[in-house]
Amino acid sequence: MAARCEAAGRDNNEDNYQLSDNLETNQWSFTTDKTIALGDKGALLAVADGMGGMNAGEVASALVIETLKEDFASDTLTDDVMSSPENIKTHIKNAIVAADTRIKQQSATDPATEGMGSTVVILWIVGQTAYVGWCGDSRAYRFNPADGLVRLSHDHSYVQELVDAGKLKEELAFDHPQNNIITRSLGDSHRKVRPDVASYPLRDGDVLLLCSDGLSGVLRDEQIEHILHESQTEPIGRRRDLLWQAAEEAGWDDNVTTCLCYVESGAVVTTQTAPGMAGGKRKSIKRILRAVITVIIAALLFGAGYYFEKSLSFKFLPKSNIVTGDSVASVDNKSTPSGNELQDNGVIAAKTITTPQNEVFDTNKPDTTIMLGKQKYDVYKENGIKYIQYKVGKGETIDAIAQRVKDYCTLSPQEIMQYNSDKKNIKKGDLIKIPWNVITVNN
Fold first, then answer.
1. Burial, 442: exposed, middle or buried (Cβ in 10 Å; 0-12, 13-18, 19+)?
2. What are the pLDDT digits (tens) for 358-372?
3. Which of 259, 332, 397, 415 is the most buried (most CB within 10 A)?
């Protein structure tokens, strides 16, 4: 096992967690990277992400962990509780309900904590099975080289409901501006808590991961999978550190908690994907099919265009002289070229570039892409004016955006807002226009 829980992107840490590598001992502890034999009552990992601001969120998540420690004490795990998978699931659900009740009682008696709440995700390893219970958007994953990363929990969130209803493509959920809205939590005085519980067979080589949305909100599942795949030979503590480092580099803006457990041996050996979840192998097949279909469609469109060009003497309008993303491998921000025309070697002095009057442009698609610093940007034209499109990150302000692009753009925050006067308040996912004529790029 390995774990880490810190304030990370915020001043105050409202996350909490707890691990026990042997519930029989009544000692809530573990030693990172130590190999142990699983006891009859199993091992537990739990993460709680508090909400409510100031200290209230911290209080809520602490109450969740305290309740779980009581409900998973050795003497509460009776023979009856351990007698069947259904009884084990019921015990998990009852423990989450008890934590919800405790938060609500505390809020009712202490005005300072009114409105506090918490998410929770629990993973209880019993024998050759992983039992998962959750409420909110803290997540449980399993990685295995056989089928990649599998999400074992299903977010209780507004965006997930849009995906489930077919109103939003799953690949767009990560960047949705309202992906922080949860639909279920502990401590909600207006609703009865409704946790979900599921179970999955374990296999040798499984890496089980619990995390708050401080991690899953800045790292896509594909990035988490890549890190765990590339670090297969590393101790589990090192894998934890690599996830942590990646979250920090991605610009975390929330508390981050990660709890991991590596199943070394003795589990079921199977390549079956977890029930009801899209495993890495299934995802790979879908990606391949999508790629094949895309190639076929592109070939058909190309063939149709070629036919019309030949048979109807259709001539494409002249293309503007623009550098594509592939032409600019890197940007050196130390100096500015003296020329004012677009050169074959990719040097641009963008302030004097003009737009051909007869050029056709689809505003729904970028005209090209270009690298500025380490970031790739789409280049658009609208009403004869060319600009790059900057996508606002989570928690970013206009001041932060101006600071981030200062090496190649001299606009002040106020000037950026003048070019985007249609946006009163920016939020994550907004597309900010930066005019091309104030951008300087070197190859």
1. middle
2. 333 344 456 677 777
3. 259
